[in-house]
From TrEMBL:
Record-linked InterPro entries: 3-OH-isobutyrate_DH-rel_CS (IPR002204), 6-PGluconate_DH-like_C_sf (IPR008927), 6PGD_dom2 (IPR013328), 6PGDH_NADP-bd (IPR006115), HIBADH (IPR011548), HIBADH-like_NADP-bd (IPR029154), HIBADH-related (IPR015815), NAD(P)-bd_dom_sf (IPR036291)
Protein name, entry field: 3-hydroxyisobutyrate dehydrogenase
Associated pathway: Amino-acid degradation; L-valine degradation
Keyword Oxidoreductase: yes
6-phosphogluconate dehydrogenase NADP-binding domain mapped to chain residues: 4-162
Organism per entry: Streptomyces lunalinharesii
Enzyme kind, highest EC tier: oxidoreductase
């Protein structure tokens, strides 16, 4: 059935996601602080709201796709979204934010008489445009069931990971695996270079042996073995290094808060923070292999 959706945050991800909800037959009332983004969304069939609160007063479901936790909490609370929506409205936050912030947002929504789900995504802008995102959701089963048809209009897969915050937890744990494994693969290629091993030979062995992983077989950090990987186009993203740095920063916060001895995860967070602040500012996250290669000292 067609639903009325308030959609706040029409940026790189939210813009195409909102457009896909319109395509699926839903009424979408959208808002973004940037007028140009609101205009683009209107061209895709989104109804422009005059403010964030105006976008949610008539909504059955409120979707947010914002930069960070402070934006989500700011809008929910100080921005008045929770006060403006009808009682019982389902608030689905698709932004990638701190697990602790997601739980705070959930509690605030429930305290205001609303219902809540955290549902961050992976798949990037191409996935948002093609409606092939993966959603990882945290919240009660009934809330997940209600959101599922909307998530299906924007993505290919939705996994219910558990209670409040579990979607964010799954997202940062997955990306911690990815950040660490990309560094491991990159270190192995640089070591192989020093040992006189060709990229193709290492790839042919590791991709079919126990070193196999996505960072190697899909997003291979050296050009050649996987022609579609960003390394073959001078590391044009892809998954931009600053976004990886952001996600690893969220993982590092959780690691410290919960006293987990995740040395590799913390090291990856630091390496990506440095890379994203310098040479990697506009590069795919696999470009970190160049930093590692450049830092290698002469034998
Ligand atoms: P973006 O910066 O392009 O979009 C965020 C939008 O929120 C902006 O257009 C901004 O104007 C708007 N906004 C901020 N505060 C607002 C407010 N108070 N009211 C209305 N609008 C407001 O970012 P993005 O790339 O679309 O990412 C959004 C979220 O998705 C982030 O949390 C990011 O980590 C996550 N994410 C991004 C990607 C990606 O590849 N870009 C992939 C997975 C997850």
């Amino acid at each position: 059935p067609s639903r009325t959706i308030g959609f706040i945050g029409l940026g790189h991800m939210g813009g195409p996601m909102a457009a896909n909800l319109v395509k699926a037959g839903h009424r979408v009332l959208g808002f973004d602080l940037v007028p140009e983004l609101l205009a683009t969304a209107t061209g895709n069939g989104v109804e422009a709201a005059g403010s964030a609160t105006a976008a949610v007063t008539a909504a059955d479901v409120v979707l947010t796709m914002l930069p960070a936790g402070r934006h989500v909490l700011g809008l929910y609370q100080d921005g008045g979204l929770l006060a403006a929506a009808r009682p019982g409205t389902l608030f689905v936050d698709c932004s990638t934010i701190d697990v602790a912030d997601a739980r705070t947002a959930h509690d605030a929504a429930v305290a205001a008489g609303m219902r809540a789900l955290d549902a961050p995504v992976s798949g990037g802008v191409p996935g948002a445009e093609a409606a092939t995102l993966t959603f990882m959701a945290g919240g009660a089963p009934a809330e997940f069931a209600e959101a599922e048809p909307l998530l299906a209009a924007m993505g290919r897969k939705a996994v219910h990971c558990g209670g409040a915050g579990a979607g964010q937890a799954a997202k940062i744990c997955n990306n911690m695996i990815l950040g660490v494994s990309m560094i491991a693969v990159s270190e192995a290629f640089v070591l192989g270079e020093r040992l006189g091993l060709s990229h193709q030979a290492l790839f042919d062995v590791a991709s079919t042996a126990s070193g196999q992983c996505w960072a190697l077989t899909v997003n291979c950090p050296v050009p050649g073995p996987v022609p579609t990987s960003p390394a073959n186009r001078d590391y044009t993203p892809g998954f931009a290094a600053p976004l990886m740095a952001k996600d690893l920063g969220l993982a590092a916060n959780a690691v410290r808060e919960h006293g987990v001895p995740a040395q590799l995860g913390l090291a990856a967070a630091q390496l990506y923070a440095d890379y994203a602040a310098g040479a990697g500012a506009r590069q795919d996250f696999s470009g970190i292999v160049r930093t590692l290669r450049d830092a290698a000292t002469a034998p």
